[in-house]
Amino acid sequence: MKQMIQTLNAPQPSGPYSQGVQSGNFIFISGQDGVHPNGDSAGNTIAAQAAASLENIKGILAEKNASLSNIVHMTCHLANLNEENVREFNNVYASYFEDVEIKPARITIGSQMLGVKVEITAIASVN
To answer: What are the protein's GO molecular function terms (predicted)?
Structure first.
C-alpha cells in the first residue's frame, strides 16, 4: 500500500505528481529544485539552489518523522555539469550530511532543466 506525502514545507507540485510517496518502508521523494516552499527562487547560484533542494527534501521527510539520515539513494541533477559546479554542489551537499554516518548512495548527472540549476530526488528507508 502506498501513501501520498504532502507538506507545506516544500513547494507544491507544479504538475501531476506527489511531493513524496511512502510504500512500505521506503519513501520516494520527487525532484526538488532551487525553489523555496512559497515558490520563490532560492537564487541563481548552485549553492543556493542546492541548499533549497535539500531543505525541501528535509521538509518532506519530516512529514513521516524521517530525516536526511534515512536517505539511502539520491539522484542529483545539475543544469551545467562541470568541475566548478560539481565542487560548489558538493560543498553544500557535504554540509547537509556531515553528521550522517552512512552517506547515501548517489549519482550526479547533467540534465537539461527549465529555469533551475539543481534538482534532487531521494529514496529513504524508514522503520
So the answer is: deaminase activity
From 115, 124, 113, select the one nearest 35 (Cα to Cα): 115
pLDDT digits (tens, 9 = 90+) for 84-96: 999 999 999 999 9
Fold of the 2-125 domain: 60s Ribosomal Protein L30; Chain: A; (3.30.1330)
Sign of CA dihedral 57, 30, 119, 69: positive
Whether 41 contacts 35, CB under 8 Å:
yes
Return the HEC string of 105-126.
EEEEEECCCCCCCEEEEEEEEC
Contact 67, 58 (CB under 8 A): yes
What distance in Å separates the CA atoms of residue 116 and residue 78, rounded to the nearest whole number? Answer: 9
Q: Which grid coordinates belong to 48? A: 543556493
Q: From residue 13, how far is each of 27, 43, 59, 88, 93 by CA, in Å?
A: 17, 19, 14, 27, 23
Is pTM, for the whole model, over 0.90? Answer: yes
Residue 127 binned pLDDT confidence (cut-offs 50, 70, 90): confident
